[in-house]
Write a structure and sequence with these properties.
single chain; about 220 residues; alpha+beta; Chitinase A, domain 3
Length: about 220
């Protein structure tokens, strides 16, 4: 499913450029890069990735740093200040989103046709399918569209015109639970609380902290 962009499930896994890993040194180098990127992906401040990549290569090969010790210290202080400011803004936005989420979920569960699970997951059956429901380790093929509470679409296999395929145990908890309740041919509308999605962290620039998510999901097949 990564190739078609299921951002909400595992974040974007697209391969930008094919890289051949022919030996152990290649694999170690790539693994170390993955480790660095995993850490940097959590940095909430934008930076020049082209300069970063060039600096890594040059500094590792022993080049003289382009920043003096004083310039380095000053830049890092400014960087940390921006992170602190961002953290404060994110915390405030998170409080607002959490309040909005609670209000929405409390009101939504009172509507006709809404089923409520013990986990907090809510769903509505649009079309009921037939056959066996998938197990947690099964691979499935689905069409879906995901929106925030304000109606903004953040991901949609339907708009891409290509179904998504993935294992149930590789996605956000709300999806795993919901799809285990569906049968091939089913179409459900899911209302997933942030605790079963991306919680207080959110996901990149698309899904803010403490965001409840709404999905229109059709289970096409167990594969």
């Amino acid at each position: 499913m990564a190739a078609v962009g299921y951002y909400f499930l595992t974040l974007d896994k697209r391969t930008i450029m094919a890289i051949k890993l022919d030996n152990e040194m290649d694999r170690i180098g790539y693994a170390l890069a993955m480790n660095v990127i995993s850490s940097l992906s959590q940095v909430p401040v934008k930076f020049n990735t082209a300069i970063f990549s060039k600096a890594i290569t040059e500094l590792f090969e022993g080049a003289e740093p382009a920043l003096s010790a004083d310039e380095y210290q000053q830049t890092m202080r400014e960087f940390q200040s921006k992170i602190n400011q961002n953290d404060q803004a994110t915390a405030e936005a998170g409080k607002e989103n959490a309040a909005e989420e609670k209000k929405f979920m409390d009101e939504n569960k009172k509507k006709d046709g809404i089923k409520v699970c013990a986990s907090g997951l809510q769903y509505e059956i649009i079309t009921e399918g037939s056959g066996e429901s998938p197990a947690e380790t099964d691979q499935v093929r689905v069409h879906y569209e995901g929106t925030l509470l304000d109606g903004k679409v953040f991901d949609s296999s339907r708009r891409r015109g290509e179904p998504a395929e993935f294992a149930l145990n590789q996605v956000i908890p709300g999806w795993t639970e919901a799809l285990k309740l569906m049968k091939p041919g089913s179409r459900h509308r899911l209302f997933i609380p942030s605790a079963l999605a991306y919680g207080e962290r959110g996901a990149g620039n698309m899904i803010p902290p403490h965001s409840a998510l709404i999905f229109d999901v059709e289970l096409l097949a167990i594969i």
